[in-house]
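User: I'm curious whether this sequence folds into something compact or stays loose and floppy. Could you predict its structure so I can see for myself?
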Amino acid sequence: MSLPFQALSQSPLIVQFDSIKFVRRNDLNSTIRFSIAIEALYGQLNNVWGSVTRIAKENNISRSFLYSLMSSLKESGEFLFSEQITSDVSRLSRDLAIKTLLSLRLEGGSSYNHISTMMKRFECKLSSVGSISQILTRIGRVLPMTLSTNNNHSVFLVFASDEIYSKKRPILVSVDPYSSAILRIELLDSCQAENWKKHFECLHDEGIKAIYLVSDDGVGLRAGHAQAMEHTVRQSDTYHAIAHKLGSWVDRLEKRAYTLIKQEQVREKRFDAAKSEAVQNKYFEAWEKTTESLIKAISLYDDYQYLYGCIIEELNVFDRFGDCRDPVQAEEEIKVGLLLMESLKHNKISTAVAKTRRTLPDLFHYFERAKKVVKKYEKQSIDKDYFRALCLAWQWGKAVRKAKNTPRKHYAKEQEKEFLGIVKCLQPKEAVSRQEDINKQLDTIVQSSAMVECINSIIRPFLNTSKDHVTQEQLNLIMYYHNHRRYRAGKRKNKTPMELLTGTVQTDDWISLVFNEIREKDPDLLLAS
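Assistant: Here's the prediction. I'll summarize afterward.
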Protein backbone atom coordinates (compact mmCIF):
# COMPACT_ATOMS: atom_id res chain seq x y z
CA MET A 1 0.00 0.00 0.00
CA SER A 2 1.39 3.38 -0.93
CA LEU A 3 0.32 6.93 -1.53
CA PRO A 4 0.34 8.13 -5.13
CA PHE A 5 3.63 9.93 -4.68
CA GLN A 6 5.52 11.18 -7.70
CA ALA A 7 8.57 9.06 -8.48
CA LEU A 8 11.94 10.78 -8.07
CA SER A 9 14.15 11.01 -11.14
CA GLN A 10 16.06 7.79 -11.98
CA SER A 11 19.42 7.49 -10.29
CA PRO A 12 22.45 7.98 -12.59
CA LEU A 13 23.93 4.88 -10.93
CA ILE A 14 21.35 2.70 -12.66
CA VAL A 15 22.20 4.22 -16.04
CA GLN A 16 25.91 3.95 -15.16
CA PHE A 17 25.95 0.23 -14.49
CA ASP A 18 23.55 -0.60 -17.30
CA SER A 19 26.25 0.60 -19.74
CA ILE A 20 29.23 -1.56 -18.65
CA LYS A 21 31.32 -2.38 -21.73
CA PHE A 22 34.01 -4.77 -20.45
CA VAL A 23 32.76 -8.16 -19.25
CA ARG A 24 35.24 -10.59 -20.90
CA ARG A 25 37.32 -11.50 -17.80
CA ASN A 26 35.26 -13.80 -15.53
CA ASP A 27 38.07 -13.84 -12.96
CA LEU A 28 37.72 -10.07 -12.41
CA ASN A 29 34.67 -9.97 -10.17
CA SER A 30 33.05 -6.76 -8.92
CA THR A 31 35.18 -6.64 -5.75
CA ILE A 32 38.46 -6.88 -7.68
CA ARG A 33 37.32 -4.28 -10.21
CA PHE A 34 36.29 -1.95 -7.40
CA SER A 35 39.72 -2.34 -5.74
CA ILE A 36 41.52 -1.72 -9.03
CA ALA A 37 39.41 1.38 -9.75
CA ILE A 38 40.05 2.81 -6.26
CA GLU A 39 43.83 2.34 -6.50
CA ALA A 40 44.02 3.77 -10.03
CA LEU A 41 41.74 6.77 -9.27
CA TYR A 42 43.71 7.52 -6.09
CA GLY A 43 46.94 7.57 -8.09
CA GLN A 44 45.44 9.84 -10.74
CA LEU A 45 43.96 12.33 -8.26
CA ASN A 46 47.22 12.50 -6.31
CA ASN A 47 49.46 12.77 -9.42
CA VAL A 48 51.29 9.46 -8.79
CA TRP A 49 53.32 9.11 -12.02
CA GLY A 50 53.05 5.73 -13.83
CA SER A 51 50.35 4.32 -11.56
CA VAL A 52 47.95 3.56 -14.43
CA THR A 53 50.60 1.64 -16.42
CA ARG A 54 51.77 -0.27 -13.34
CA ILE A 55 48.27 -1.34 -12.30
CA ALA A 56 47.37 -2.37 -15.88
CA LYS A 57 50.48 -4.63 -16.09
CA GLU A 58 50.01 -6.13 -12.60
CA ASN A 59 46.42 -7.14 -13.36
CA ASN A 60 47.02 -7.97 -17.04
CA ILE A 61 44.30 -5.56 -18.23
CA SER A 62 44.17 -2.90 -20.93
CA ARG A 63 44.65 0.77 -20.11
CA SER A 64 41.27 1.61 -21.77
CA PHE A 65 39.52 -0.87 -19.45
CA LEU A 66 41.27 0.68 -16.45
CA TYR A 67 40.29 4.21 -17.52
CA SER A 68 36.68 2.99 -17.91
CA LEU A 69 36.69 1.68 -14.31
CA MET A 70 38.16 4.97 -13.06
CA SER A 71 35.55 7.01 -14.95
CA SER A 72 32.66 4.92 -13.58
CA LEU A 73 33.92 5.24 -10.01
CA LYS A 74 34.46 9.00 -10.36
CA GLU A 75 30.98 9.63 -11.78
CA SER A 76 29.39 7.51 -9.08
CA GLY A 77 31.26 9.38 -6.38
CA GLU A 78 30.23 12.75 -7.79
CA PHE A 79 26.59 11.65 -7.74
CA LEU A 80 26.73 10.26 -4.19
CA PHE A 81 28.62 13.14 -2.62
CA SER A 82 27.55 16.13 -4.71
CA GLU A 83 25.91 18.90 -2.63
CA GLN A 84 23.68 19.89 -5.57
CA ILE A 85 22.21 16.41 -6.00
CA THR A 86 21.59 16.04 -2.29
CA SER A 87 19.87 19.43 -2.24
CA ASP A 88 17.66 18.57 -5.24
CA VAL A 89 16.54 15.26 -3.75
CA SER A 90 15.79 16.94 -0.41
CA ARG A 91 13.84 19.72 -2.16
CA LEU A 92 11.78 17.21 -4.15
CA SER A 93 11.02 15.31 -0.96
CA ARG A 94 9.90 18.54 0.78
CA ASP A 95 7.70 19.56 -2.16
CA LEU A 96 6.09 16.13 -2.11
CA ALA A 97 5.45 16.36 1.63
CA ILE A 98 3.77 19.77 1.26
CA LYS A 99 1.61 18.52 -1.62
CA THR A 100 0.65 15.49 0.45
CA LEU A 101 -0.41 17.46 3.50
CA LEU A 102 -2.36 19.94 1.32
CA SER A 103 -4.25 17.07 -0.30
CA LEU A 104 -4.94 15.31 2.99
CA ARG A 105 -6.15 18.51 4.65
CA LEU A 106 -8.26 20.03 1.86
CA GLU A 107 -9.33 17.08 -0.29
CA GLY A 108 -9.35 14.52 2.51
CA GLY A 109 -10.70 16.85 5.20
CA SER A 110 -8.35 15.25 7.74
CA SER A 111 -7.41 16.79 11.08
CA TYR A 112 -3.80 17.73 11.81
CA ASN A 113 -3.38 14.66 14.04
CA HIS A 114 -4.68 12.32 11.35
CA ILE A 115 -2.49 13.96 8.69
CA SER A 116 0.53 13.49 10.96
CA THR A 117 -0.30 9.81 11.50
CA MET A 118 -0.68 9.09 7.77
CA MET A 119 2.46 11.00 6.78
CA LYS A 120 4.53 9.18 9.41
CA ARG A 121 3.22 5.85 8.16
CA PHE A 122 4.57 6.64 4.68
CA GLU A 123 7.77 8.21 6.06
CA CYS A 124 7.08 11.68 4.71
CA LYS A 125 8.97 14.74 5.84
CA LEU A 126 7.22 17.49 7.85
CA SER A 127 5.04 14.89 9.53
CA SER A 128 4.83 16.41 13.01
CA VAL A 129 1.62 18.21 14.01
CA GLY A 130 3.61 21.38 14.67
CA SER A 131 5.22 21.34 11.22
CA ILE A 132 1.87 20.70 9.52
CA SER A 133 0.22 23.59 11.37
CA GLN A 134 3.12 25.93 10.62
CA ILE A 135 3.28 25.04 6.91
CA LEU A 136 -0.48 25.43 6.36
CA THR A 137 -0.48 28.75 8.23
CA ARG A 138 2.36 30.09 6.08
CA ILE A 139 0.59 28.98 2.92
CA GLY A 140 -2.66 30.61 4.06
CA ARG A 141 -0.76 33.82 4.75
CA VAL A 142 0.30 34.20 1.11
CA LEU A 143 -3.24 33.60 -0.19
CA PRO A 144 -5.79 36.45 -0.36
CA MET A 145 -9.06 36.71 1.54
CA THR A 146 -10.62 38.70 -1.31
CA LEU A 147 -10.92 37.60 -4.91
CA SER A 148 -9.27 39.99 -7.34
CA THR A 149 -9.98 40.69 -11.00
CA ASN A 150 -6.21 41.08 -11.57
CA ASN A 151 -6.81 43.89 -14.05
CA ASN A 152 -8.36 47.31 -14.24
CA HIS A 153 -11.73 46.01 -15.44
CA SER A 154 -14.73 45.77 -13.13
CA VAL A 155 -16.83 42.62 -12.81
CA PHE A 156 -20.53 42.92 -12.02
CA LEU A 157 -21.99 40.01 -10.06
CA VAL A 158 -24.93 39.17 -7.85
CA PHE A 159 -23.70 39.00 -4.24
CA ALA A 160 -25.06 36.40 -1.82
CA SER A 161 -23.83 37.42 1.62
CA ASP A 162 -24.30 36.03 5.11
CA GLU A 163 -22.53 35.10 8.34
CA ILE A 164 -21.18 31.68 9.29
CA TYR A 165 -20.33 31.10 12.94
CA SER A 166 -17.32 29.36 14.46
CA LYS A 167 -18.36 29.10 18.09
CA LYS A 168 -19.35 32.71 18.79
CA ARG A 169 -17.09 34.33 16.18
CA PRO A 170 -18.73 35.34 12.88
CA ILE A 171 -17.19 34.58 9.49
CA LEU A 172 -18.42 37.08 6.90
CA VAL A 173 -18.85 35.47 3.47
CA SER A 174 -19.86 36.81 0.06
CA VAL A 175 -20.41 34.37 -2.80
CA ASP A 176 -21.24 34.53 -6.51
CA PRO A 177 -24.31 32.22 -6.72
CA TYR A 178 -23.77 31.38 -10.40
CA SER A 179 -20.19 30.10 -10.17
CA SER A 180 -20.23 29.37 -6.41
CA ALA A 181 -16.90 31.24 -6.14
CA ILE A 182 -16.18 32.74 -2.73
CA LEU A 183 -15.58 36.46 -3.29
CA ARG A 184 -14.43 37.37 0.21
CA ILE A 185 -14.20 35.53 3.51
CA GLU A 186 -13.07 37.03 6.79
CA LEU A 187 -13.00 36.10 10.45
CA LEU A 188 -14.13 38.87 12.81
CA ASP A 189 -15.23 39.41 16.39
CA SER A 190 -18.61 40.86 15.42
CA CYS A 191 -20.90 41.33 12.43
CA GLN A 192 -21.80 44.96 13.03
CA ALA A 193 -22.58 47.46 10.29
CA GLU A 194 -19.01 48.81 10.17
CA ASN A 195 -17.60 45.35 9.50
CA TRP A 196 -20.04 44.66 6.66
CA LYS A 197 -19.38 48.13 5.24
CA LYS A 198 -15.64 47.39 5.10
CA HIS A 199 -16.40 43.95 3.63
CA PHE A 200 -18.33 45.42 0.69
CA GLU A 201 -15.83 48.26 0.19
CA CYS A 202 -12.95 45.78 -0.11
CA LEU A 203 -14.82 43.91 -2.84
CA HIS A 204 -15.48 47.19 -4.65
CA ASP A 205 -11.78 48.14 -4.40
CA GLU A 206 -10.83 44.82 -6.03
CA GLY A 207 -13.08 45.59 -9.00
CA ILE A 208 -15.95 43.30 -7.95
CA LYS A 209 -19.24 45.22 -7.98
CA ALA A 210 -22.78 44.14 -7.18
CA ILE A 211 -25.70 43.94 -9.60
CA TYR A 212 -27.76 43.47 -6.46
CA LEU A 213 -27.28 41.94 -3.02
CA VAL A 214 -29.18 38.92 -1.71
CA SER A 215 -29.18 38.42 2.05
CA ASP A 216 -31.28 37.70 5.08
CA ASP A 217 -32.57 40.51 7.29
CA GLY A 218 -29.62 40.63 9.69
CA VAL A 219 -29.40 44.08 11.30
CA GLY A 220 -25.66 44.54 10.81
CA LEU A 221 -25.73 43.31 7.22
CA ARG A 222 -28.61 45.58 6.25
CA ALA A 223 -26.98 48.60 7.87
CA GLY A 224 -23.62 47.81 6.24
CA HIS A 225 -25.31 47.54 2.84
CA ALA A 226 -27.03 50.89 3.37
CA GLN A 227 -23.70 52.56 4.17
CA ALA A 228 -21.50 50.94 1.51
CA MET A 229 -23.94 50.23 -1.35
CA GLU A 230 -26.84 52.63 -0.93
CA HIS A 231 -27.47 52.72 -4.69
CA THR A 232 -27.48 48.92 -5.00
CA VAL A 233 -30.73 47.03 -4.46
CA ARG A 234 -30.87 44.54 -1.58
CA GLN A 235 -33.02 41.48 -2.25
CA SER A 236 -34.41 39.81 0.88
CA ASP A 237 -33.71 36.10 0.95
CA THR A 238 -36.98 34.42 -0.04
CA TYR A 239 -35.96 31.26 1.82
CA HIS A 240 -35.40 33.03 5.15
CA ALA A 241 -38.37 35.34 4.61
CA ILE A 242 -40.98 32.73 3.71
CA ALA A 243 -39.80 29.12 3.47
CA HIS A 244 -37.84 29.25 6.73
CA LYS A 245 -40.42 31.20 8.75
CA LEU A 246 -43.61 29.69 7.31
CA GLY A 247 -42.56 26.42 5.71
CA SER A 248 -41.56 24.76 8.97
CA TRP A 249 -45.16 25.06 10.18
CA VAL A 250 -46.33 22.62 7.48
CA ASP A 251 -44.28 19.84 9.06
CA ARG A 252 -45.22 20.87 12.60
CA LEU A 253 -48.93 20.86 11.90
CA GLU A 254 -48.71 17.55 10.06
CA LYS A 255 -46.78 16.00 12.94
CA ARG A 256 -49.37 17.36 15.41
CA ALA A 257 -52.22 15.81 13.38
CA TYR A 258 -50.53 12.38 13.27
CA THR A 259 -49.85 12.53 17.01
CA LEU A 260 -53.53 13.18 17.68
CA ILE A 261 -54.54 10.34 15.34
CA LYS A 262 -52.47 7.94 17.46
CA GLN A 263 -53.93 9.36 20.68
CA GLU A 264 -57.45 9.02 19.29
CA GLN A 265 -56.83 5.34 18.45
CA VAL A 266 -55.38 4.65 21.89
CA ARG A 267 -58.35 6.27 23.67
CA GLU A 268 -60.81 4.42 21.47
CA LYS A 269 -59.23 1.12 22.49
CA ARG A 270 -59.33 2.12 26.16
CA PHE A 271 -63.03 2.93 25.85
CA ASP A 272 -63.73 -0.42 24.16
CA ALA A 273 -61.83 -2.24 26.91
CA ALA A 274 -63.62 -0.49 29.77
CA LYS A 275 -66.05 -2.65 31.77
CA SER A 276 -67.87 -0.40 34.23
CA GLU A 277 -70.13 2.41 33.16
CA ALA A 278 -68.15 5.01 35.14
CA VAL A 279 -64.88 4.06 33.45
CA GLN A 280 -66.60 3.98 30.06
CA ASN A 281 -67.94 7.50 30.59
CA LYS A 282 -64.50 8.74 31.65
CA TYR A 283 -62.73 7.24 28.61
CA PHE A 284 -65.50 8.33 26.27
CA GLU A 285 -65.09 11.98 27.31
CA ALA A 286 -61.34 11.77 26.75
CA TRP A 287 -61.87 10.09 23.37
CA GLU A 288 -64.43 12.71 22.38
CA LYS A 289 -62.11 15.62 23.29
CA THR A 290 -59.23 14.05 21.38
CA THR A 291 -61.46 13.54 18.33
CA GLU A 292 -62.50 17.20 18.41
CA SER A 293 -58.85 18.29 18.68
CA LEU A 294 -57.95 15.94 15.84
CA ILE A 295 -60.63 17.37 13.52
CA LYS A 296 -59.38 20.90 14.25
CA ALA A 297 -55.71 19.87 13.74
CA ILE A 298 -56.43 18.22 10.38
CA SER A 299 -58.48 21.20 9.24
CA LEU A 300 -55.72 23.60 10.34
CA TYR A 301 -53.07 21.51 8.56
CA ASP A 302 -55.08 21.29 5.30
CA ASP A 303 -55.87 25.00 5.24
CA TYR A 304 -52.35 26.08 6.14
CA GLN A 305 -50.68 23.72 3.68
CA TYR A 306 -52.89 25.00 0.85
CA LEU A 307 -52.21 28.65 1.68
CA TYR A 308 -48.48 28.05 2.02
CA GLY A 309 -48.40 26.31 -1.37
CA CYS A 310 -50.20 29.28 -2.96
CA ILE A 311 -47.70 31.74 -1.43
CA ILE A 312 -44.67 29.70 -2.56
CA GLU A 313 -46.06 29.51 -6.10
CA GLU A 314 -46.18 33.33 -6.23
CA LEU A 315 -42.38 33.39 -5.78
CA ASN A 316 -41.82 31.59 -9.10
CA VAL A 317 -40.16 33.78 -11.72
CA PHE A 318 -42.31 32.41 -14.57
CA ASP A 319 -45.95 31.39 -14.66
CA ARG A 320 -47.14 28.05 -16.04
CA PHE A 321 -47.07 29.43 -19.58
CA GLY A 322 -43.43 30.54 -19.33
CA ASP A 323 -44.17 34.27 -19.12
CA CYS A 324 -42.46 36.47 -16.55
CA ARG A 325 -44.74 37.05 -13.57
CA ASP A 326 -45.90 40.50 -12.49
CA PRO A 327 -44.20 41.37 -9.15
CA VAL A 328 -47.04 43.69 -8.07
CA GLN A 329 -49.63 40.97 -8.57
CA ALA A 330 -47.36 38.42 -6.84
CA GLU A 331 -47.00 40.71 -3.82
CA GLU A 332 -50.76 41.26 -3.60
CA GLU A 333 -51.47 37.54 -3.79
CA ILE A 334 -48.95 36.86 -1.01
CA LYS A 335 -50.52 39.58 1.15
CA VAL A 336 -53.92 37.92 0.74
CA GLY A 337 -52.40 34.55 1.63
CA LEU A 338 -50.84 36.01 4.78
CA LEU A 339 -54.17 37.54 5.81
CA LEU A 340 -55.89 34.19 5.42
CA MET A 341 -53.14 32.53 7.49
CA GLU A 342 -53.78 35.03 10.26
CA SER A 343 -57.49 34.18 10.08
CA LEU A 344 -56.60 30.63 11.19
CA LYS A 345 -56.18 32.18 14.67
CA HIS A 346 -53.01 30.36 15.64
CA ASN A 347 -50.86 32.69 17.77
CA LYS A 348 -47.44 31.37 16.78
CA ILE A 349 -48.36 31.24 13.09
CA SER A 350 -49.61 34.83 13.33
CA THR A 351 -46.23 35.86 14.80
CA ALA A 352 -44.40 34.19 11.88
CA VAL A 353 -46.78 35.89 9.41
CA ALA A 354 -46.02 39.28 10.94
CA LYS A 355 -42.26 38.71 10.53
CA THR A 356 -42.76 37.66 6.91
CA ARG A 357 -44.93 40.70 6.16
CA ARG A 358 -42.09 43.03 7.24
CA THR A 359 -39.81 41.58 4.53
CA LEU A 360 -42.25 42.08 1.62
CA PRO A 361 -40.94 45.50 0.46
CA ASP A 362 -37.52 43.97 -0.38
CA LEU A 363 -38.72 40.56 -1.52
CA PHE A 364 -39.46 41.02 -5.23
CA HIS A 365 -36.46 42.84 -6.71
CA TYR A 366 -35.36 39.68 -8.53
CA PHE A 367 -38.32 40.18 -10.89
CA GLU A 368 -36.63 43.31 -12.22
CA ARG A 369 -33.57 41.25 -13.10
CA ALA A 370 -35.83 38.65 -14.74
CA LYS A 371 -37.49 41.32 -16.86
CA LYS A 372 -34.10 42.54 -18.11
CA VAL A 373 -33.08 39.01 -19.10
CA VAL A 374 -36.37 38.38 -20.92
CA LYS A 375 -36.24 41.74 -22.70
CA LYS A 376 -32.67 41.06 -23.84
CA TYR A 377 -33.69 37.91 -25.71
CA GLU A 378 -36.96 39.32 -26.99
CA LYS A 379 -34.89 41.85 -28.92
CA GLN A 380 -32.97 38.99 -30.56
CA SER A 381 -36.11 37.64 -32.25
CA ILE A 382 -35.91 34.25 -30.55
CA ASP A 383 -38.88 31.92 -31.08
CA LYS A 384 -41.23 32.69 -28.16
CA ASP A 385 -42.36 29.12 -27.58
CA TYR A 386 -38.74 27.92 -27.55
CA PHE A 387 -37.73 30.64 -25.08
CA ARG A 388 -40.73 30.00 -22.79
CA ALA A 389 -40.06 26.25 -22.72
CA LEU A 390 -36.40 26.94 -21.89
CA CYS A 391 -37.42 29.27 -19.04
CA LEU A 392 -39.79 26.67 -17.58
CA ALA A 393 -37.14 23.92 -17.90
CA TRP A 394 -34.72 26.19 -16.01
CA GLN A 395 -37.32 26.90 -13.32
CA TRP A 396 -38.13 23.21 -12.81
CA GLY A 397 -34.40 22.44 -12.74
CA LYS A 398 -34.07 24.80 -9.80
CA ALA A 399 -37.00 23.07 -8.13
CA VAL A 400 -35.23 19.71 -8.50
CA ARG A 401 -32.12 21.02 -6.75
CA LYS A 402 -34.08 22.71 -3.96
CA ALA A 403 -36.57 19.90 -3.24
CA LYS A 404 -35.89 17.88 -0.10
CA ASN A 405 -39.09 15.85 -0.36
CA THR A 406 -38.52 12.80 -2.60
CA PRO A 407 -41.94 12.75 -4.34
CA ARG A 408 -41.64 16.49 -4.97
CA LYS A 409 -38.16 16.03 -6.41
CA HIS A 410 -39.34 13.26 -8.73
CA TYR A 411 -42.26 15.38 -9.92
CA ALA A 412 -39.95 18.33 -10.60
CA LYS A 413 -37.60 16.04 -12.56
CA GLU A 414 -40.47 14.85 -14.73
CA GLN A 415 -41.54 18.42 -15.45
CA GLU A 416 -37.99 19.48 -16.26
CA LYS A 417 -37.57 16.52 -18.60
CA GLU A 418 -40.85 17.34 -20.34
CA PHE A 419 -39.92 20.96 -21.03
CA LEU A 420 -36.38 20.02 -22.09
CA GLY A 421 -38.00 17.71 -24.63
CA ILE A 422 -40.05 20.64 -25.94
CA VAL A 423 -36.88 22.76 -26.10
CA LYS A 424 -35.16 20.05 -28.13
CA CYS A 425 -38.04 19.88 -30.59
CA LEU A 426 -38.21 23.67 -31.05
CA GLN A 427 -34.47 24.32 -30.90
CA PRO A 428 -33.10 25.96 -34.04
CA LYS A 429 -30.09 24.40 -35.71
CA GLU A 430 -26.71 25.27 -34.15
CA ALA A 431 -28.46 26.89 -31.15
CA VAL A 432 -26.80 24.85 -28.37
CA SER A 433 -24.45 27.70 -27.48
CA ARG A 434 -27.42 30.09 -27.35
CA GLN A 435 -29.22 27.75 -24.95
CA GLU A 436 -26.16 27.74 -22.66
CA ASP A 437 -26.00 31.52 -22.83
CA ILE A 438 -29.70 31.85 -21.92
CA ASN A 439 -29.30 29.47 -18.98
CA LYS A 440 -26.29 31.45 -17.79
CA GLN A 441 -28.29 34.67 -17.88
CA LEU A 442 -31.25 33.03 -16.13
CA ASP A 443 -28.87 31.93 -13.37
CA THR A 444 -28.26 35.60 -12.56
CA ILE A 445 -31.86 35.74 -11.28
CA VAL A 446 -31.12 35.01 -7.64
CA GLN A 447 -33.85 34.80 -4.99
CA SER A 448 -31.97 33.52 -1.96
CA SER A 449 -28.54 33.37 -0.35
CA ALA A 450 -28.75 29.57 -0.19
CA MET A 451 -25.33 29.34 -1.84
CA VAL A 452 -23.80 30.67 1.40
CA GLU A 453 -25.42 27.71 3.17
CA CYS A 454 -23.72 25.43 0.62
CA ILE A 455 -20.39 27.11 1.37
CA ASN A 456 -21.13 26.64 5.07
CA SER A 457 -21.56 22.91 4.47
CA ILE A 458 -18.15 22.87 2.73
CA ILE A 459 -16.36 24.90 5.41
CA ARG A 460 -18.02 23.30 8.45
CA PRO A 461 -16.07 19.96 8.32
CA PHE A 462 -12.78 21.92 8.37
CA LEU A 463 -13.99 23.89 11.39
CA ASN A 464 -15.03 20.67 13.12
CA THR A 465 -11.69 18.93 12.53
CA SER A 466 -9.85 21.97 13.90
CA LYS A 467 -12.14 22.01 16.97
CA ASP A 468 -13.32 25.46 15.88
CA HIS A 469 -9.87 26.96 16.47
CA VAL A 470 -10.17 28.79 13.17
CA THR A 471 -7.76 31.41 11.84
CA GLN A 472 -7.89 33.77 8.88
CA GLU A 473 -5.04 31.84 7.26
CA GLN A 474 -7.13 28.64 7.36
CA LEU A 475 -10.06 30.43 5.76
CA ASN A 476 -7.81 31.86 3.02
CA LEU A 477 -6.60 28.36 2.19
CA ILE A 478 -10.13 26.91 2.20
CA MET A 479 -11.34 29.73 -0.07
CA TYR A 480 -8.46 29.21 -2.55
CA TYR A 481 -9.02 25.45 -2.60
CA HIS A 482 -12.77 25.79 -3.15
CA ASN A 483 -12.42 28.39 -5.91
CA HIS A 484 -9.90 26.30 -7.88
CA ARG A 485 -11.01 22.73 -7.19
CA ARG A 486 -12.95 20.84 -9.87
CA TYR A 487 -16.52 19.68 -9.23
CA ARG A 488 -16.99 15.93 -9.68
CA ALA A 489 -20.78 15.86 -9.86
CA GLY A 490 -23.87 18.03 -10.11
CA LYS A 491 -24.73 21.01 -12.25
CA ARG A 492 -21.13 22.28 -12.29
CA LYS A 493 -19.52 18.89 -13.02
CA ASN A 494 -15.96 19.06 -14.44
CA LYS A 495 -15.83 22.83 -13.91
CA THR A 496 -14.06 24.90 -11.28
CA PRO A 497 -15.73 27.95 -9.70
CA MET A 498 -13.06 30.19 -11.25
CA GLU A 499 -13.71 28.76 -14.71
CA LEU A 500 -17.41 29.53 -14.35
CA LEU A 501 -16.67 32.99 -12.97
CA THR A 502 -14.06 34.09 -15.52
CA GLY A 503 -14.96 31.95 -18.55
CA THR A 504 -11.28 30.95 -18.79
CA VAL A 505 -10.21 27.29 -18.79
CA GLN A 506 -8.11 26.33 -15.77
CA THR A 507 -5.38 23.97 -16.98
CA ASP A 508 -3.44 23.52 -13.72
CA ASP A 509 -4.49 21.60 -10.62
CA TRP A 510 -5.27 23.70 -7.55
CA ILE A 511 -2.16 22.43 -5.72
CA SER A 512 0.04 23.56 -8.62
CA LEU A 513 -1.60 26.99 -8.43
CA VAL A 514 -0.93 27.14 -4.68
CA PHE A 515 2.76 26.36 -5.36
CA ASN A 516 2.86 29.19 -7.90
CA GLU A 517 1.63 31.57 -5.19
CA ILE A 518 4.23 30.24 -2.73
CA ARG A 519 7.10 30.61 -5.22
CA GLU A 520 6.05 34.20 -5.87
CA LYS A 521 5.37 35.36 -2.29
CA ASP A 522 7.19 33.00 0.09
CA PRO A 523 9.83 30.97 -1.82
CA ASP A 524 11.75 30.19 1.39
CA LEU A 525 8.93 27.85 2.38
CA LEU A 526 9.99 25.41 -0.37
CA LEU A 527 13.68 25.45 0.53
CA ALA A 528 14.92 22.31 2.26
CA SER A 529 16.01 22.96 5.83
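Summary: Residues 12-81 form one domain. DSSP finds 21 helices and five strands in the chain.
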